[in-house]
Each structure stands twice: as C-alpha cells, then as structure tokens.
Write a structure and sequence with these properties.
Elements lengths: L25 E7 L8 H11 E14 L23 H10 L2 E8 L13 H11 L3 H13 L3 E10 L1
Parallel strand pairs: 1-2
Antiparallel strand pairs: 2-4, 3-4
Length: about 160
C-alpha cells in the first residue's frame, strides 16, 4: 500500500541571516549553492537552528573551499575573490555540531555528480549568459578549472536539530 502525502511549499525572499520566521517554526530548511554568498557562517548556522523545530532537518548542497588553492574568478557567484565567501567544509560541519545539530548525511560529490557543461548542455550555458552577461563563458571556464584542481568541493548534507 502506498500512502499519499500532500506537501505545501512556500517561497520567501529575505536574508539567511535574519529569516522572517518565528523561533522553532519550520520542519525543514533547505539551501543550495547559497552559503558562498554569506560571509558570517556562524550567524547563518545560528539562524538556521533558530527557525528549525526540534527534530527539524537542515538539508543543503553547497560549494566549499577545496584543498587545491585559491579560487579562480570569475565564477557565477563572484567576479573576484573579495566577493566570494567559501570556507572549508569542516568549518561549517564544526559550526553545525557546536550549535546542536546531529549529522545524518555528509556526502562529498564526485566530479561526475557535478559535471561541467558540455555540448549537450549548451542551452544551459546560453541561459547563463542572459543572467551573467558577457562573463558567462569565463565563469564556466573558471568553474571547470576550480573543480578540476580541487579549488572547490561540492557536498550534500542533512543535519537534524537536537
């Protein structure tokens, strides 16, 4: 027997450092490719914890600083290093544990799972040009190099608020 579940989703625009929600009111906080834009990781983690109810899940797929050296720019989130706020993944993992999150999944992604654009995905790159303008091709090239040289790493994780 298959159970039927109804899921209501609402989207809000705001700051991850000052979410427009009460304390302990959300069951899930999900981010994807967002934290590299936020310099204050401790405040971000504290805010995520604040809005999650006990047993709530923090789910993310994010880009982190890798062991391969400094970030090559431009990338889709930063035209120069001064506007990129990557940290090593262990930094965020430690912050999450310190504020009372329990780790359930910590999954580094392989290059195949974060494959760069190919001829088959050329329309995606063309769409990126609409968003990023004339830097889109350079951003894609730098992104490929950053990944190949492990200047960035990608991972998925699930944490539960204790």
């Amino acid at each position: 027997m298959i159970a039927s579940v109804t899921l209501a989703v609402q989207f809000f625009v705001g700051s991850g450092l000052d979410m427009p929600f009460g304390d302990e009111c959300l069951a899930v906080v999900w981010t994807q490719d967002a934290s590299m834009n936020i310099p204050d990781k401790a405040r971000l983690v504290a805010e995520q914890r604040r809005v999650l109810r006990r047993g709530g899940r923090l789910v993310f797929q994010e880009i982190f600083a890798g062991p391969g050296g400094d970030l090559m720019c431009p990338v889709p989130w930063a035209r120069d290093p001064a506007t990129s706020f990557l940290v090593p993944p262990e930094h965020v993992r430690t912050l999450l544990r310190e504020v009372g999150f329990d780790e359930r999944v910590w999954l580094p992604l392989t290059p195949d799972e974060r494959a760069p654009a190919t001829a088959a995905t050329a329309p995606v790159l063309s769409a990126a040009a609409v968003v990023h303008g004339p830097d889109a091709v350079a951003m894609e090239a730098a992104s490929r190099r950053n990944q190949a040289e492990q200047r960035v790493v990608y991972l998925r994780a699930v944490f539960v608020r204790g």
